Amino acid sequence: MSSPATSLAHCERLEVLFGELAELTGQRNAIDGRVVEIVAEIDRDELWAAAGARSVAGLVAWKAGMSPANAEVIATVAHRSEEFPRCTEGLREGRLSLDQVGAIAKRAADGSDEHYAELAASATVTQLRFALKLAPKPKPEPRPEPEVEPEPDHTPEPVPAPEPSISKSTDGECTTWRITLPALEAAKFEAALASHQDALITDWKRDHDTEAADGSGQRPPMPSTADAFLALVEASWDAEASRRPHGQHTTVVAHLDLDKPVAALHLGPLLSDADRRYLTCDATCEVWFERHGQPIGAGRTTRTVSRRLRRALEHRDRTCAVPGCGATRGLHAHHIRHWEDGGPTEMSNLVLLCPYHHRAHHRGLITITGPADSLVVTDGAGRALSSASLARTPTTPPPAVAPYKGPTGERADWWWYEPFQPPPPPSAN
C-alpha cells in the first residue's frame, strides 16, 4: 500500500501530465480544424481529380499518410462543414475533437448544428453516436391516393397480353433500350435479373471485406441493376457459344484505320481518341486493322495479354501503378507505349492500372511514361506523383488555443438522448 506522500506525488505528477495532454489535444483539434478547412476547399472546387486521386478521402489518405477510415472522417466533416458551422468552429477552437464532429457530420440531420454542438460539449463520442442512432429518420412524403374509376355498366372485354417487343433509341453518346414483356416472361426476367444482382453483390461484399482488411480503402460502387443486366447478357450469350454461327462470344469489335488513326465500332459510330485508346489498350476488344477502308487483318493475338503474362504482372505490380491508389481489384493491363503506336506486349511495356486511372490516363488527366521499372506518373499540370505523404517537420508554432477540457465524463442524463426535432415549417399565413 502506498504512503500518503507517494499518493500526493502521483497526484501532482498526474496534474502536470494532464495539463500537457490538454494543451496538446487542444492544439491537435485546432490543427484538425484547419485540415478540414483545406479539405473543404479541395472538395468544393473538385481539385482532388486534378491531383490524380479517385476521391477526396483517397487524396487525404494519400497526401496526409493516414488510414482510409480517418481520411473518410475528415472528408465527411469537410463536405458538411457549411451545414454545421458551430461544430466545426468548436473543432477549430480546440473545444471539440475530430471524432466528435465526425460522428455528427456522418449521421446528423440538416438544421441540427446548434443541438449537437451543445450536446458535444458534454457527451463522449460513444454517447453522441447513441444519441444520433435514436434520432428519428425523415418520414417519406405521402403518396397520392390513386383515383378510383367508376365501375362500368358491363363486363369489360379481356385485354390481350402485350406482345414481347424491344425498341432502341440513340441520343448522342447514350442508347436507350425499351423492353416490353407479358407478365409471365417479365417475372422470369426479373427473377434472373435479381439472381445475377445478388451474385454480384455477394462478390462485391467479399471484395469489400478483403479490401477493408488489407487497408487499401478502395471501395468500388455497389453493383446496380444495369450491372446485373449486363451480367445476365454475358452469361446467357457466352454459355451457348457453340450453338451459334462461328461460335462467337460477346466481343466488342472495332475497326481501326492505320492511316488516320480513326476507329469505329462494328456497324456503329466513330470512337473518340480517348475511347479508341481505352478499348484497344487491354484485351477487351477485337480490333480489325484497315487501310483505305479495306480490312487487312485482326490484331487480337498480338495485343492480348496472355494468362501467364497477366500472372507475372500481378506478381510484380500487386496494385494499381498510380502512386497513392493501392487498388487491387479489377485491374487492367495497360500498354505504356500504346499498342497501336508500336508498343510491344511485354513486361517492360505493361503495368496494371485500376479502371478509374486507366480511363483518366486515356482522357489526358494523368500521364504515364516508362519503361515499367522506372515508371513516371504525372498529373494534369505535369507534376510527378509520389506515394509519399506531405508530412514534414513543422516550421511554424502550434496554434494558440485553450487547453482541451473534453467531455465531462458524468453519467448520461436523459436530455443527452433526447432526439433532435427539426423546427416546424413556416406557416402559409
From TrEMBL:
Protein name listed in UniProt: HNH nuclease domain-containing protein
Disordered: annotated span: 135-173
Biased amino acid composition, Basic and acidic residues: 138-156
A GO molecular-function annotation: zinc ion binding
Domain (HNH nuclease) ranges: 308-359
Pfam families named in the record: DUF222, HNH
Tree of life domain: Bacteria
Family: Belongs to the Rv1128c/1148c/1588c/1702c/1945/3466 family.
